[in-house]
Amino acid sequence: MIRVTGEKQKSEIAYAIQKYNKSTIYSYGNFCPSYLDTYMTYDTECDPISFCKFVMENLEEKVRDNEGLPIPMIVIYTNLDDLVKITVIENYIKEMENEKLVGNVVFMTR
What we know:
alpha/beta, five-stranded parallel beta sheet
């Protein structure tokens, strides 16, 4: 996991990653970078566990379509500052990487 934190310009970093290697961006919270390949989930729609389960299911489909090979990189973007919710997402990210669904996850938080 690569972690990017800060108040400003995370969306520009996410855009650069997506443009460079076509990584999918999964956004959770109340802000979504407006890029072409972004899945947006508002934190009022579901909890972090449900969001992470969605991401894992989506990655499992992509891995199946990719002949069983892991997806090289994804971005999980959030403006959360709640440490409990951030920890939940981090634990799922570790599981995604351990299960070889994705090579690297770039996790962006406030």
